Amino acid sequence: LLIISSGSFPVKRDNLTDKQRNQLRDALIFESSIKQKCDIFCSNDAKAFIKHGKREKLEKEFGIKVRRSDEVLSEFDA
After folding, report:
1. What confidence score (pLDDT) does residue 68 get?
2. Which of 15, 18, 19, 69 stands 20 to 30 A from 47 (CA)?
């Protein structure tokens, strides 16, 4: 959640905006993929998972590849 929100997620979660609830949901889905020991996490939400070095941080921290759907398809085609 810290990486996805670029450190801007509020500590108190009793009055979240829609955007913050979406970020929390995204983090929980990503966490579930890690717990299930998935090799690849696929999301087209580049702002949350790819841009500004987030992909590299998430991959390094959690040992899971973060890819957009077109990248996953390209890897399977190869």
Report:
1. 96
2. 15
Tokens encoding 39: 């090799």
Residue 58 near residue 64 (C-beta atoms within 8 A): yes
How far, CA to CA in Å, does 77 sit from each of 46, 64, 67, 68?
22, 20, 15, 14
Closest CA to 40 of 7, 3, 73: 73
Scanning the structure block, which residue is given the tokens 């009055």?
15
Give me the pLDDT at residue 24, please.
94
Parallel/antiparallel/unpaired status of strands 65-67 and 40-42:
parallel
Q: Which helix (H) or strand (E) segment is 60 a member of? A: helix 54-62
Which amino acid, residue 17? Answer: T
